[in-house]
């Protein structure tokens, strides 16, 4: 084990949960499909458009998943397949070409188009990679057309981003220098990205590039001198594709909480030969601010218990942060997919005895949470109100994906997401 | 393939969920991939329900395809029965499962569960949410209805049909209409689907007639009940004072009661509020009405006859009821707009420049973009359409609620005059909405780009005329521009001057 975390060693937890048995369940899953990643991806890459090739269900999901309809004209849409597309009465490829033509005529600002596969398009084996290739030729050089699958039969929630970024990897230019550079993969809020860029610059780590970029013509280059640091724990396929292009993967916990951020930055700093002293000096203000922001929350969360339903694959990282930095007891860490290779730094820091569950059987898991009666339950939107009605305090998991929570200056905000529901419970007298 | 950004209706299995979730003692086993579970949040978040919808999803994955998706369905159905012990089960497929053709109905039948199992065939690639709800209700009633009992209490009775989970104001409409009907001295046999159990559906034939509150959901069922049991069905939708009076008359006629004696004691504040002098400013406001056909048609009548508005556009998104909407549009002398393409609706509103939009959440957004006031009068629903307070749309109280709903977004009487008089007051700028809506309400005006394009197209507004036009408050400026241009075109004028503007004003004065 390559444990770079001073914290894990200091607390004597050693291997923690890395080798703990995992409860694998295969029942009903109450999770989003990978299409949902478009919710943030379409705002992150400002000149990209996401065209789902799917059904009315897919379109309805996109409209409903954000809880409200976000009505700034979105850079996504659904090409809804109809009976005639399925019955072979028309060539689905011709239909798709016509749809894309209409779309691009309406949105001349679009420079990159993702054709996003769904369950129906996968089941009827509509070959979107062929379509992407064909359309790329037609619209070259104005628009690049790529494809990936966000279907629910293959991807869960954040895996959609993984599939999207993996589809970008072959597009990245070859890096033709031996000088090391850092590539940070995984969507971060712009504000967080800027903070990290500043810190890394002060540390003398660089050049630093981010994937996905904010504009499609600003793709980072990659090659054997690239050092890859993941900002999100759900990027297995992207990481594999990048290492196949020569990138060297750095293994770290994820930048959630003050310690998580320090550990994450330290891995990058070590890879670029930054001295401990310099690292300490540069990160001190951030660490101090984070500690200060976390303190009042720690007071409220210390000794309280948390239970995670599977959602974003960020659960092990969040659990680690709540346990180490806020003193919480973790009852169960549910995750849709446990990629041990990507989260072993996190698992190592979870106390022995924590239940780690992968996949889901939602009814059984509900039985467990009712039995355990945690102080806070992190779950999806379909479960939150029903559990509140049963007297459990909940936190919507989706907010953890839609809020800037990474880095020193967001550590307090992250903890606040958990204290707020509890705070509310104590205020309300009705 | 149809390019879709926003949709008015979900897929048909969401309609089936609305039936199952509204009812009690029903469980729905849906063959569907994991992502389709998003539909739960419609009920738990938008409607704020305090329990999960009674739906089990099989959540099959790619690796299950071709091998054991059928087994998966059967074990899901068996487990769901064990755990939830429903009185009836409905089973079906979502869009993806439809393609793999596992036949959920046959698979469930083979399990021989100790409760009625009703298979649903909801074609996802041609039908939509309302149709799915109607079909589900129909299949359930067909399966569960028993012959009329011989041993019934005296006096007239009816069923109230149509309300579902996630329905626009259904919760409060039912309370209002049940109250109205009971005050008339009619016994309500069952209200369904919302609130009904499978056992209630067993005795649906015990009523003398059916009140169809939401034809989108209950029409198919009510027609079948009419054929099967000779139960008459109501045709008037009690939205607005006039329609509620008509509704009472229709119901009284079915029940053999005296409507006029009953109506003498019923009141709606709406009648006086609308007649009161303060409402003068509502006169002739040009409104665009869009929604499901039933709500759109009903609201057009309220708008014209009870608010004194002028209906300038009328449309619906559900083709199943296009005939009803066309008939109504004809009565108003309008071209009906029947489309589920939100961009088409947007274009229609932009072209008509109404002074107010009565629509769905989609039109609320369109209106916001175009700087027009809007009131929401129809599904699709949004969390705001489930207010904490009692707010029916139907019946006499519903009419009063409607009055408030329609007046709220508008600039109030005297305020409107002051805006006309003192256009140059810096606080009357175009971004300022009605004062009672607070400073947060930003209203967008016709932007400069549009203005330039128009100048080219029409042969030109002179600078003076353009400046004069800007002195007209934003909420009537679109109409003034349109009228002036129309006038100029009719007269074959090449340039629009301040004179043209006022000539047009006189020409169109009403
Ligand atoms: S699970 Fe499949 S069918 Fe359902 S919304 Fe996601 S991609 Fe579409």
Structure description:
The complex is a heterodimer of chains A (430) and B (510). The radius of gyration of chain A is 22 Å and the shape is globular. Chain A has a six-stranded parallel sheet with strand order 1-12-11-10-13-14, sandwiched between helices. Chain A has a four-stranded parallel sheet with strand order 3-2-4-5, sandwiched between helices. Chain A has 430 residues and is of the alpha/beta class. Chain A has helices at 6-10, 38-44, 56-65, 83-86, 92-106, 119-123, 128-139, 159-168, 190-203, 236-244, 257-271, 276-301, 315-326, 340-347, 362-372, 381-389, 397-402, 411-427; strands at residues 22-26, 48-54, 76-80, 112-117, 144-149, 181-185, 208-211, 226-230, 248-250, 305-308, 329-335, 355-360, 376-379, 394-396. The longest helix of chain A has 26 residues, at 276-301. Helix content of chain A is 45%, strand content 16%. Chain B is built from 22 helices and 14 strands. In chain B, helix 1 (12-22) crosses helix 6. The model of chain B is unreliable at 438-458 (pLDDT under 50). In chain B, strand 13, helix 16 (361-370) and strand 14 form a beta-alpha-beta unit. The two termini of chain B are 46 Å apart. The longest helix of chain B has 18 residues, at 474-491. Chain B is globular, with a radius of gyration of 26 Å. Chain B is α/β, with parallel strands linked by helices. The chains are: A alpha/beta (430), B alpha/beta (510). At the A-B interface, helix 3, strand 3, helix 4, helix 5 and helix 6 of A face strand 1, helix 2, helix 3, helix 4 and helix 16 of B. Strand 3 of chain A pairs antiparallel with strand 1 (2-4) of chain B. Iron/sulfur cluster sits between chains A (33, 35, 54-55, 57-58, 61, 118-119, 151-152) and B (33, 35-36, 95-96).
List the helices and strands and how they pair.
The complex is a heterodimer of chains A (430) and B (510).
Chain A lengths: L5 H5 L11 E5 L11 H7 L3 E7 L1 H10 L10 E5 L2 H4 L5 H15 L5 E6 L1 H5 L4 H12 L4 E6 L9 H10 L12 E5 L4 H14 L4 E4 L14 E5 L5 H9 L3 E3 L6 H15 L4 H26 L3 E4 L6 H12 L2 E7 L4 H8 L7 E6 L1 H11 L3 E4 L1 H9 L4 E3 H6 L8 H17 L3
Parallel strand pairs in A: 1-12, 2-3, 2-4, 4-5, 6-7, 6-8, 8-9, 10-11, 10-13, 11-12, 13-14
Chain B lengths: L1 E3 L7 H11 L3 E6 L7 H8 L8 E3 L11 H16 L3 E6 L1 H6 L3 H8 L5 E3 L9 H16 L12 E5 L8 H14 L3 E6 L5 H5 L6 E4 L2 H15 L2 E2 L7 H15 L3 H5 L5 H7 L10 E6 L1 H14 L3 E7 L5 H10 L5 E2 L3 H11 L3 E4 L1 H10 L3 E3 L18 H13 L5 H9 L26 H11 L4 H8 L3 H18 L6 H11 L2
Parallel strand pairs in B: 2-3, 2-4, 4-5, 6-7, 6-8, 8-9, 10-11, 10-13, 11-12, 13-14
Helix pairs in contact in B: 1-6, 3-5, 6-9, 7-17, 12-17, 13-14, 15-16, 20-22, 21-22
Bound molecules: iron/sulfur cluster.
